[in-house]
Amino acid sequence: MRRLVSLPRLVTGVFLGSIVIAAFSNRSLAGSHNTDLSLVPYDSANLYKRYCQACHGERGDGKGPAGKAMNPSATSFLTMSDTTSVEYIFQVTTQGKGSMPAWKNLLNDADRRSIAEYIKRAFISNPQKK
Ligand code: HEC
User: Fold this and answer.
1) At what angle do helices 109-119 and 86-95 cross, to 10 degrees?
2) Once rounded to an integer, what is the mean pLDDT over residues 87-110?
3) 75 C-alpha to center of ligand 1: Å?
4) Does residue 92 line the site of ligand 1, with CB under 6 A?
5) Which CATH architecture fits 43-130?
């Protein structure tokens, strides 16, 4: 059986995650009557902006306002190895890591996969990243 994340970490993660979601959902859903996220046609860049950027930064460098304050700070995708697979990013996103919340119950599979592909393409394998 998989070990559960320790309770304080889980609480921090869920807490930070909900702040981020609260902060971003109002803005992004403005003008839309649709509140079921899974019914909104997904666009990976927008999903990243909405759910990950506050910590991982606009450029994927881990310097988002919320990410800088964390310990350890949010990962810079720019320094991750080019061999990092979309599957790995997807798994970490699904399960969470350290103080990062698990996104399993917050985003559906297709959205998590779409964001993982975006992170790989835009930040990890981007030849202009440095
Ligand atoms: C509340 C801030 C926060 C948010 C929001 C956040 N992350 Fe993270 N993320 C972190 C932190 C902190 C770490 C480093 C965890 C550690 O190494 O202990 C991390 C690590 C990661 C890693 C692991 C990199 C590695 O070296 O293994 C991936 C992949 C990742 N995040 C993807 C995402 C994705 C995708 C999203 C959006 C759905 C997201 N994160 C949103 C804080 C956040």
Assistant:
1) 130
2) 96
3) 6
4) yes
5) Orthogonal Bundle (1.10)
